[in-house]
Design a protein that fits this description.
Blueprint: E1 2-7, H1 14-22, E2 30-32, H2 33-39, H3 46-55, H4 84-91, H5 96-126, E3 131-135, H6 139-142, E4 150-155, H7 159-169, H8 175-183, H9 188-196, E5 203-207, H10 212-229, H11 232-240, H12 242-273
Parallel strand pairs: 1-3, 1-4, 2-3, 4-5
Helix pairs in contact: 1-10, 3-5, 7-8, 11-12
Length: 274
């Protein structure tokens, strides 16, 4: 089974590409890390309790306010949901305090998301799917690109397009807040270059500076190349011969590790020349 890691940056169109891949003619199963990230911090979960333990004392409005529809102790008695906008303002930005808080939050959420993801991947494998899409905003940052046979980055060439789309989507954001959210993430053009450094169909970029029709054509063009490099019959063969699947998986993991190391060494050399 081929794991396609789908990533991008805020307001580049990754979610739209995920929707395209979910529907015909592709009809691919999608494992959405954002959905899992919300699931693992629902009231009563270990992730929820750890977030409260770290942030509640210094963030009074960390939870959604109680109301007629939302009791003081939550609908299920396990607590009120997190106020995601408030938590976002706490961790997004370039200040050292925000970076530390973002590291703490990621350390709570990411391991729980990985576990849920592994369970879903196994389920899709047992059901015989030839490809599964891992929709992960922080694919490279979390190191999960190592487990993907193909990495697909949804990117825009013009940073102004990204800022405009973000403020159109979240109209309450000021220009400064939008800049903080974009700036807190790895530049999507660097992500695109890193994907392409994997070589051939192992790393592909979907450019999304135009409209949705253009995006659909771009997705089709990129998927054709991926399918040529990893046809469905190969996935069925790996499913039928688990030993071969293990060998191929080990080889792909080693190759992805080597490609990442080569990229990191290249970046160090570039910085040394500056």
């Amino acid at each position: 089974m081929l794991l396609l890691g789908l990533t991008g940056s805020i307001a580049t169109g990754k979610s739209t590409v995920s929707q395209i891949l979910r529907k015909p003619p592709y009809s691919l199963p999608i494992i959405d890390a954002d959905i899992l990230a919300r699931k693992v911090v629902e009231p009563g979960t270990p992730g929820y309790n750890r977030i409260l333990s770290h942030f509640a004392s210094t963030t009074p409005d960390l939870l959604l306010p109680a109301s007629d529809d939302l009791p003081e102790h939550g609908i299920n008695g396990k607590g009120r949901p997190l106020n995601r906008a408030v938590l976002g303002r706490r961790v997004f930005g370039d200040g050292e305090d925000r970076k530390r808080d973002r590291t703490v939050l990621n350390g709570i959420v990411h391991p729980a998301v990985r576990w849920e993801m592994c369970k879903q991947v196994l389920g899709h494998y047992l059901r015989g799917h030839w490809m599964v899409v891992l929709d992960i905003p922080l694919l490279f940052e979390s190191g999960l690109d190592l487990w993907c046979g193909v990495v697909m980055v949804v990117a825009v060439r013009d940073p102004e397009v990204q800022m405009r789309r973000l403020r159109e989507r979240d109209q309450g954001l000021s220009a400064e807040e939008a800049g903080d959210r974009v700036g807190s993430q790895w530049d999507v053009r660097d992500k695109a270059r890193r994907a392409e450094s994997r070589g051939g169909a192992r790393g592909v970029v979907v450019w999304n500076d135009g409209d949705k029709e253009g995006l659909e054509r771009e997705v089709g063009r990129v998927l054709e190349g991926v399918e040529r490099a990893s046809p469905g019959w190969w996935a069925w063969l790996l499913l039928a011969v688990p030993v071969l699947a293990g060998v191929v998986g080990g080889w792909n993991l080693a190759w992805a590790w080597w490609a990442r190391r080569r990229w990191e060494q290249g970046r160090k050399r570039e910085k040394a020349r500056l």
